[in-house]
Specification:
Elements: H1 3-10, H2 17-27, H3 33-41, H4 44-54, H5 68-86, H6 103-121, H7 129-138, H8 141-152, H9 158-164, H10 169-177, H11 181-191, H12 196-203, H13 213-228, H14 237-249, H15 254-265
Helix pairs in contact: 1-8, 2-3, 2-5, 3-5, 4-5, 5-7, 6-7, 6-15, 7-12, 8-11, 9-10, 11-12, 12-13, 13-14
Length: about 270
Amino acid sequence: MTKSLLENINSVPALPESVQAVEKIYQDPDSTFEDMQKAIEKDPLLTADILRIVNSPMYGMRSTITDIKQAISLLGKESVRTFVLASAVNSFEINLSPYNMSKDDFRRACDVQLALMINWLIRRQSKRLSKLGPAAFLVDLGRVIISKTLMEDDKADTIQEALAKGKDIAQAEKEACGAQTTDVTATLFHHWNLDPDIIHIIRYSDDPDGTYEEEKEMAAELKAVRETVLPNGEITQESIATAKETIEEFELDLESYERALERVLNS
């Protein structure tokens, strides 16, 4: 990583106090649903943001969720804790013009990746959501820091120039600032003292074979979700085909993926 990129990662503020409080409760094995509910409801903005996400059509709720207690009861602590961590995005000034993307594009991609992951795992491997939920929503946060660095270093055009030459985004990022999005996000999560397992899964989501066996499948699931959802939040037949190649390669659950994908596409 370039010096300026590292400086920008280290300058990111700590997670908001309300988010840190919820994370502490989540990590406490003796905590209850009620403890998490009370911690969230102390922050009205956090509460509103979680209810916005929960009531997205992508989660297929049969009626409007009006309070945090309902959200935890229906989706579980893992999912709601993910929504809490996802609120960290609100503290970032998002300018992705070097990628020719808008703030709305970025937020849509985060939302769709999270919805796809939750719908894929919630009935099959719900415990994995403690790691893959935050990873799916926040994995591309490093792109915001890369973008800021490129603009400060007068290299805002380098990503588009590299893409025009047929290189993929990860290659373009490495050439521009010495690191790709997943590396930057993993380093940021380390800066925030988040779960080392989440950091590891994010770092190896571009190359699941590079990690050890216990985490390989989760890294591959994250890779498939990122391949499905393009950086601007769109899903195409080509992106689905690419993801299915990964699902086949790592022998993931294709049937559950297709059900999850259908729900997201029909929302």
